[in-house]
Amino acid sequence: MMIIETKLDNRFQPLVAHVKDTSNVLDCSGAGIMVIHHDKIVTEQYWGKHAKAPDARPIQEDSQFHVASVRKSYIGFAVAYAVQNRYIVCIDDKVTKYIAIHNTAVYKNMTIRHLLTHTHGLNIKEGKQIREFAAGQSWAYRDINIDLLAEIVEQTTGKTIAQIVSEHVFEPLEFKETGWYDEQNEQLVQVIRKPNNKFWSTSKGTDGDKKNMYVSTRELAYWGYIHLKQGFINGRQVVSEDIIRLATSLQSPSLKNKELPQNGFLWFVKDLPAMKSEIGERVPKGSFQILGYTSVALLVIPKHDLVAVRMFNSFGSTPGYDYLSDIRSFGDTVIACL
Question: Which residues of the chain have pLDDT under 50?
Fold first, then answer.
């Protein structure tokens, strides 16, 4: 079981104010924030409600937010598990070594590393897979790689994403507020979106490969804390240190354009300065971050022994909201509080 002492620290009030300012700009009904610093919960606040209805449940400790692409950090963990246990021999193996591909020309020279670091070059156009650029030559954020990684994990290990993270993380640490849900329940925060938003899609299935993952603020912070401590929790090695290191270290191939984001196993990692990085300029090298389209963010800063989480329930950005600037500012504000 995860046990972290609470010792609130007013130094992080500017960060709380930053998150509240963002919540006022976004089309959301509630939000949460948690900061863990030097093995203490130093900030934890919730405000708003699960939905816009007057009688909606207030946001609280067990409220679970739809984390959107933050789910990719759990998929990255499962891939790292497969690599560490030699189900996947090497991330520079070609994708076609592990799964059957009909359109082999589109997948030419594409490796698992390319899938993990968004450098694969694949996209979907008019229902067909196309190549935007040669694998390993540039960077683009597309979801097609996530489906392929999930398939590779299941084909090689015989286990689903959910089974792997449950067995190695959720069950040993008694996580009860993290999961994939087919049906609504009172702990799930409603996603606020325009009714006809063509990008929104609900998912069914609890294998861990679908876009239906909900996590509470505190368990997302705990997930970050596990990575911060490289799996050593409450005096024992609960999670493999090798898996954590693999997932959160720089894995991107060398690209000609040095201004593109850098990744580990789907995590964004801070290495050399890059204009298109989603991690704040003041955040030190070695930090890593994962983001979701609901504006959820988890930032881990090993240099300062810190984890910061912000939670919202807005699907996408409102007019005038600069997501890239805001998420960079979030990280820079964390540093300013220290």
Answer: none
Angle at 279 between CA 277 and CA 166, to 5 degrees: 110
Quote the pTM value.
Answer: 0.97
Domains of the chain: total? 1
287 closest CA partner among 310, 266, 271? 271
Residue whose structure tokens are 């191939």: 253
72: its two tokens: 């990719």
- State whether residue 323 is helix, strand or coil: helix
Nearest Cα residue to 72 out of 80, 82, 64: 80
What integer pLDDT is reported at residue 188 of this predicted model? Answer: 97
Domain containing residue 92 = 5-337
CB 242 within 8 A of CB 265: no
Cα angle value 156/262/112 (rounded, 5°): 20
Residue 143 belongs to a domain with what CATH number?
3.40.710.10
**CA–CA separation, 148 and 123 (whole Å):** 12
CB atoms within 10 A of CB 261: 20
Q: What is the pLDDT of residue 202?
A: 65
